[in-house]
Write a structure and sequence with these properties.
Strands 1, 2, 3, 5, 6, 7, 9, 14, 15 and 16 form a 10-stranded mixed beta sheet that branches. A 4-stranded mixed beta sheet has the order 8-4-10-13, with no helix packed on it. A two-stranded antiparallel sheet has the order 11-12. It has one domain. The chain is globular, with a radius of gyration of 19 Å. With about 260 residues, the chain is α+β, with helices and mostly antiparallel strands.
């Protein structure tokens, strides 16, 4: 006889039910945002790094008649806890984001490049995140999750089948996103209020707010670059910046409904 509780726990620990729930939520709310899942558990292999894995969900949306927006989603279910992001106290919400743009006429490695564009919805941006179980360099980290996700975005973009319909759109854009059931918290911190002796926040040094989504931005070592050749370390860091959208799962339909490129 099957031990239902034990089997259910085994499934829940895997995170697969959460992945199916996220896909279902996108389908259920399609009319409000016009994004649709095109594939799940999609195997990828990076043509240059040889990294490989499975993309949880790929969404597409048409900008006009043909689909040319793709969102590559990694689903992350956690048990309790929260993801805490750190920003400076005077930071405003931004529309800036980095996307992998593809020239569909070229259809080779020279046609892929990371570019900075403005897109909505607006959100706060952070380069620092602490996830449950993370302590210094041990345990899970958003950097490791994001690095693998960016590899998958490049692989999907490079391996996506060519077609005359795709070439008619001239370009497509691919966006990395992480959808999680963890509560997303941002700490807006005044660096001047951090105790330099202990390295810790004082009791009134940070404002903690819960947000539906946030931009996680950091310099990552991706294979494809921007069009610019950096002349110094500062420019190199800037050109390597990549943006990963981190979205609280219940807020995903609203996030997709607000999605729009700025002119």
């Amino acid at each position: 006889m099957v031990n239902v509780n034990s089997a259910a726990k085994q499934l829940n620990d895997s995170g697969y039910p959460f992945q199916l729930a996220v896909e279902h939520e996108v389908k259920k709310s399609y009319q409000s945002h016009l994004w649709r899942p095109v594939v799940g558990e999609h195997r990828w292999q990076h043509v240059k790094t040889t990294q490989e894995g499975f993309v949880d969900i790929v969404l597409e949306r048409a900008h006009g008649v043909l689909p040319n927006f793709y969102m590559i989603i990694e689903c992350k279910r956690v048990t309790g806890g929260r993801w805490v992001f750190l920003t400076k106290h005077d930071q405003d919400q931004t529309a800036d984001a980095h996307l992998l743009e593809e020239d569909t006429i070229t259809r080779d490695s020279s046609g892929l490049r990371w570019v900075k564009r403005g897109c909505r919805p607006l959100s706060l941006t952070s380069s620092f995140c602490v996830v449950p179980g993370q302590k210094d360099t041990h345990g899970p980290s958003l950097e490791r999750i994001s690095s693998m996700l960016l590899d998958s975005v490049e692989a999907v973009a490079f391996q996506r089948p060519d077609s005359s319909a795709a070439r008619a759109e001239k370009w497509v854009a691919h966006y990395p996103a992480i959808v999680t059931n963890a509560v997303i918290v941002v700490c807006k911190c005044d660096p001047a209020q951090v105790d330099i002796a202990t390295g810790k926040l004082g009791k009134s040094a940070g404002e903690f707010i819960s947000v539906p989504f946030v931009r996680f931005r950091k310099a990552f070592a991706t294979t494809w670059r921007t069009d610019k050749t950096p002349m110094n370390l500062r420019e190199m860091s800037r050109e390597n910046q990549r943006t990963i959208f981190v979205i609280h799962a219940p807020s995903l339909p609203d996030f997709l409904a607000q999605w729009n490129l700025e002119d």
